Amino acid sequence: VPFEVAFSALFEERFAMLYRYLFRMSGDAALADDVAQESFVRLYQRGSMPEDPPAWLVAVANNLVRDERRKLKRRAMLLLRRGGEDERPPVPGADAGVLSEERVAAVRRALGRLSLRDRQMLVLRHEGYSYREIADALGIANSSVGTLLVRATAAFAAAVEGEDHASD
Amino acid sequence: MHPTEAVWREMLDGEANALVCRELDHHLGECAACEACVDALVEDASRAAASLQLLEARVPVRSAAAIISRAKGRSTRRWALLAASIALAIVTVAGATIRSGVWQRLVGQSRQHAAVVTRPVTADSAVHNDASSANRIAFTPGDRVEISFDERQAAGDLLILVGADSTVTIVASNTVRYALRSGGVRVSNGGSSASYQITIPDRLPEASIRVGDRVVFYKHDASVSTKAVTDSGGRYRIPFTRKEAATP
Fold it and tell me: Between chains, do A156 and B51 touch, taking CB under 8 Å as contact?
């Protein structure tokens, strides 16, 4: 299969998944869009398919998000030193018209209590990534994914419950 | 023996193979503890999924073609940048070379303000300009040389030494303009009051020094014709004010 055809098929199949994963992780629609697109651009520039394309895309996206976070952090610190405020617009709610922004914020806070790896595992699994893809993307053993997912899920459920109690 | 939570989770996630799933199903029907464990796992997973669902996002419409176009455009820009960098490097190197040549010319011209030297038209003389001396010229002569001063001066002397040097050297006390040409050098001394010390190789077959239209010094092999007298240093001293001219 020519690379361009395989690339297009992968894009159709995986772009939305990658975008949703990134949005859930970051809460930033613009960032998720940029990073998801950039990940596919880099895959195309690679010129050939990696062994596990979905995992490769997630790994690249994670690195891009991390780089972006660093930039934002530096920018925020700079603004702080200058006595200004971050001019980045507030992140909109997922569906502000229907869902309570407070509820969404509570879920985000609960997610934020988990370690980065737990967050990534949980969201990737929720998005439908296989154990093998999660293991490849996060650089962990395939046999550990089940165990780690159980812990991450329990931790998240407890964190959400804690948020619910706090709001009551 | 009870399967671990991870094994149950793998089964729930559809990651366990068919054979393992059959065994787990069989165990689940007989083990209340594992049934409770699976129920708890399902509940946690459901709660987590429901919460994560709240973070649902509308996926923007993007096309593979647009991504490919973007990637290609970036690649083209990268090549263009690379080409521009190479071109810039070439221009820089070439420019430096040209500048070096231009610079040398400018330096040469600036020196000529002090003691302008034009290279000889023919190759019978090799120029050895003393870069540190703006009023000095030295060159290797052919078989004959004529040193020609444009005009008489109101002041100043010619001090001529026939020595063992292989080059003809003129050292002026003030700045004048020199022009090397085939068979000699022209000294544009108009308005000058400088004195000149001229060294002529004794092995040079023929040499003459002219001031205006008069020959004031002439050497042929070992014979020297001049009305000048030598000083204590063995130099022929010819004041510019003297009207006499030597005749070959």
Answer: yes
CA distance B83 to B79: 6
With CB atoms and an 8 Å threshold, state whether A146 touches B56. no
Q: Of the candidates B13, B15, B55, which has its C-beta nearest A107's C-beta?
A: B55
| Burial of A85 per CB tally in 10 Å (0-12, 13-18, 19+) | exposed
pTM of the entire predicted model: 0.55
Do A107 and B7 lie within an 8 Å CB cutoff? no
Q: Is the ipTM of this complex over 0.85?
A: no
> Scanning every residue of chain A, which has its alpha carbon at the shortest distance from the alpha carbon of B48?
A157
User: Residues B182-189: what's their mean pLDDT?
Assistant: 85
Identify the sign of the CA torsion B85, B90, B91, B96.
positive
Q: Which of B6, B13, B48 sits opposite A156 (nearest CB)?
A: B48
pLDDT tens-digit profile of B44-86? 888 888 899 888 878 999 999 999 988 888 777 777 777 788 8
Return the number of CB contacts < 8 Å for A and B.
110
pLDDT digits 0-9 by tens, A71-122: 777 767 766 665 544 444 445 544 555 557 888 889 999 999 999 999 999 9
- The answer to whether residue B243 neighbours chain A at the CB level (below 8 Å) is no
Q: Is the dihedral of CA A9, A14, A19, A22 positive or negative?
A: negative
Identify whether the C-beta of residue B122 lies closer than 8 Å to the C-beta of residue B182.
yes
Which among A4, A8, A99 has CB closest to B54? A99
Reported in sequence order, the residue ranges of A22-128 that DSSP labels E, i.e. its strands, are none
Look at residue B98 and tell me whether its pLDDT is greater than 60: yes
